[in-house]
Protein 1
Amino acid sequence: MEAAFRELESGPIAPDATTHLLMLRGYAHAGMIYKMESTYELACKHAGKIDTVHIRAMLCAYCKFRHADRIKKIEELLQRLGPDDYKPWLNVLLIRVYAQEGLVEGMEQWIAEALERNIIVTTVQVMRSIITSYFKCDAVDRLAHFVRRAEESGWKLCRSLYHCKMVMYGKHHRLEEMHEVLDEMECFRFHRTKKTFWIMHKAYVSCGRRDEANTILAMMWKHGFGLPSRIFVR
């Protein structure tokens, strides 16, 4: 692409606004952010105004590739889109990028918009980004609220959603609520794994409830998971 552009520059046909827009889109798709930004400046000079197709391409690049101040740049570009320029795929990308940046408030705003528009998230990667964001800020009740809404709206569910809830409930010694998560898992056909029991065991140990912790170890053995070599039953 760059070789073709240099050929234009050195030949009798000078690059025009369309040429710069094509370069802009190419750099955006390739994730070459610095070149995309410099080409954006040139395209603005030649075209005067960048159309929504290329604005979306830049937004997609900022969402997919980490870059300094990308949230600020994303929000500046979003202001250039009109109310009729909404795209479900862009909404999902924005949920993920705000989650990756740990901006829970912004993430929840985009989640709310997706739910309002009946958009269904179908990728585990996006769901795990959301989980991680809630986990990092220790927001178990907000996570629990999100999981309920995701269940009701048909979003992609995964065992990690429920394991994260269990870990966070256990951290706060909310053991009854931790046990209730097991029923939720059964409802959506997520069977208990070795990790499920291990989370419960650690929660009981952290509360000093050794008898219940040993009971969990017995359940692990019963289900054929065995015991970690460093664990001793007392």
Protein 2
Amino acid sequence: MGSNRRGCSLTLRPLPAARNTQTGCHYLCGALEAGVVLLQWYEPMQKFMLVKHFDFPLPSPLPVFEMLVSPGEEYPLVCIGVSKGPAPVQAVHFQTINLNSLTSWFTDSGTAVSCPGPTQVIQLDGETVLVLIDRSLKLVNLQGLLLRRHFPAPTVPFDMAVESVALVQNCVPASWRHGVQVRPLGSAQVVEELRDTHWTFRLLRSPSTVIIETRPTEEPSGASNLYVLE
């Protein structure tokens, strides 16, 4: 590690984590009011160290804040937005900050129009990204191209306003205000579903466990129930 890397004790907002499988390096990324910081795990000191600080006026609130690990790049890209792609085959346009570049940091052309409603980005591996956008789920590569050859249904539309998705053991649970359903990854088939207007549902994610939180619709501040999705 270079001598210019120092300890960082910043107060950060969301901290997405990523691992570069080619180098084995672990990263955290933080969004400040007017910029982005990247931290890397430094094994000899047993802590994360600041390696990049990029000043850029971020949108508020941030529609998306995730890292995308691109093969061949040392540092992850920082995704700060996602919108519809310019063509059917390019279904998604990622608005990213390239922390590997010294000149062209922000990769957005400025012509993309953000989609209304919840958006979410989950990188599955070096070539596959799961994107919730425009009330549909899309499986694309890092260029936003649909992975038609890899999945029977690279685009899955929803008939409800899905708020959040997760991935557990090749299944995709999706939650909306009054329900949750589960589909196999890359399939339009619904294998489990629960709808109940008496309860509100919220999906709580972790790397290995998905938890569903429910609250009575008539008592939004009342006690909640937590269920582990198996």
Protein 3
Amino acid sequence: MTIAVTGATGQLGRLVVEKLKQKLPASAIIALVRSPEKAADLGVPARAADYGKPSTLDAALAGVDTLLLISSNEIGKRAVQHNNVIEAAKMAGVTHIVYTSLLHADTSPLSLADEHRQTEADLTSSGVPFTILRNGWYSENYTGSIGAALAGGAFIGSAGDGKIAAAPRADYAEAAVAVLTRDGDAGKTYELAGDTAWTLSELAAEISRQTGKDIPYKNLAEADYAAALKSHGVPDGFAAAIASWDVGAAKGALFDDGQQLSTLIGRPTTPLSVAVATALKS
């Protein structure tokens, strides 16, 4: 069996490839990347593949049995890009596509959900057997801001008391590998999230505990949070999007208590305390 991973040099993709290598010979894994030279350190065969250039995809997918389609990072272009890959996979005779979607994509109020809904629909109509991994929020989406919180004396956001069932990327990568390397998941959709949800106030308290500094959570209005992000160099459109996602979190968009992620990986998901400690060491 040959397994190909799109976006293999990305943050999630690299983790998936490393975990696949623990289960399969490197020759059975193909890294699909825009620039194969950047994948040299992965230790697996690499092929040029660009979501936005269908002409690159046919050769890239030749001989591939199972494909992990990691969602593109080009928000606004993703539905078209993903469909390019799905169509090429169909033509290449790929027998199973595993797609990284968004938690509760079918009902999520987040602006990110529309393109995932479209891709899920395209998979359904493709005729290729597929499995959907609806990934919840990565812990790193928030722990990546710890440095700024320590510098500014507070952790800021617009999530209110919303419960966030996050887990580190490594947990989601492990779940993807579990599905990629076993049979019986075709046609299934998994809602993947951390076992124990937390609020941004609880995150701030954990940062305070581990650093010995008083770092409170400061909840801001959506527009004020977007403005704060812009002041730190985040592009206007992305700042507005991040703030809107936090508002979605306040309404429960990032919460799930089904524990399907821990079931897939066969262990509890990584707790917040470990995610914070890891971020503080980096």
